[in-house]
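Chain A, query sequence.
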Amino acid sequence: MNGRERSSGPYLDPPVLVCADLQTEYLMQGRRHALADAETSCDRCAEALALWRGGHCPVIHLKRIAQAAWFNPASKLTEWIAPLTPQPGEMSFEHPLPSAYSSARFADYMANMKSIRCVLLGFSLDETILSTAVEGYHRGHRYYVVPDAVACKRPARGDASAYKEAVLEVLSNYVTFLKFSEMATLGMPVQA
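Chain A, predicted structure.
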């Protein structure tokens, strides 16, 4: 048996939790890009962070730093949501465009990882999560998404839940969906 195998089968490194854009800007009601289901997603993200941190597994935080008029990077609104703030030893990457791969550091990190599996959750399902997953797919990276741990902005017209379902349908071409309870299938120490 080589060093990468256990008696129960091949050894897999723990999945990396990628927390996308957990910034206060997205929680501010009345703002153009306020999210429809942010509270539910925040709760699930907090639960996932607790699991990863408890299992001493790797965590990456993504922060949108767009230079657009609607997104002021100097504002306090771009700060992390307090209970979801990166901790010492956790990586964080700032990205100017929707895809996290627009960060040269993130793209380099991912390019140097072998057989990496990422659980992507957080905010901006229709921008950061979708574009990162699509670009990662084309680079050969494996992403998993927990649908109840992602939030989507409110559409200008129509039903917010129908819009989210439509985005998830497109995303299903590039990722594997997991229920929160299924994270144990990725080698995570999930308690029942």
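The domain at 12-182 is CATH 3.40.50.850 (Rossmann fold). The longest strand covers residues 142-150.
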